[in-house]
C-alpha cells in the first residue's frame, strides 16, 4: 500500500497574502531641504530660488520623490510650493515626508484599491515571514481593509498562524 501525501494547507481554502507585494517597486528619491538651509536653520528665499534654477530636474524624470527636512528647522510653505513647480512636470509622484513615509502612503493607496470581493468569506493569512521587514502599519491597514469581508484573518504561516479575527456566526 502506498502512502499518499495530502497537502492539507492547499485543501483548506486558506488564502495567503504576502504584504511584501504591496511595497513599491519603484525607487523613492529623497530631497532633503536641509541642503539649502543657512546655518542648518534658516531658508533664505533668494539663494534657494537660484539654487533650484541650477538643478538638472531631468534626473527626477518618472521618479517618486519625497521632500523632507532632516533638520529641526521651520520650513516656509512657499518652499514646498516652489519644489512642486519644478518636480511636478518631471516626477512620477511627489510627496512631503520622508521616503519611508512616502512608501507607506503608496502602500496604503494600493491596499485601498484592493479588490476585496475575492476575499469575501475567506480564511486569510497575512504572511509573517519574508525577505523584507514589513512595517506593522501595513498589517494594520490590511487588517482594517479585510475585516468586513473575511471569515477569519490570521498572521504568520499556514503551519503556525496566530488567529487575529474570526467572524461570529449569526
On the 0 to 100 scale, the average pLDDT is 92
Strand content: 15-25%
Write out the strand line-up for the largest beta sheet, numbering strands in chain order: 1-7-8-9
Number of strands: 9
Give the % helix.
Answer: 25-40%
Determine the structural class based on helices, strands and strand pairing.
Answer: alpha/beta
Q: For the CA atoms, what is the radius of gyration?
A: 23 Å
Question: What distinguishing features does this structure have?
Answer:
single chain; 170 residues; alpha/beta; 4-stranded mixed sheet; 3-stranded parallel sheet; elongated
Q: What is this entry, summarized?
A:
29% of the residues lie in helices and 24% in strands.
What does this structure look like?
The protein is 29% helix and 24% strand. The chain is an alpha/beta fold and 170 residues long. Helix 2 (45-54) runs parallel beside helix 3 (77-87) and helix 4 packs parallel to helix 5. The radius of gyration is 23 Å and the shape is elongated.
Q: What is the fold's blueprint, element by element?
A:
Elements lengths: L7 H4 L2 E4 L10 E5 L4 E2 L3 E2 L1 H10 L9 E5 L8 H11 L5 E4 L2 H14 L10 E5 L8 H11 L5 E6 L2 E7 L4
Parallel strand pairs: 1-7, 2-5, 5-6, 7-8
Antiparallel strand pairs: 3-4, 8-9
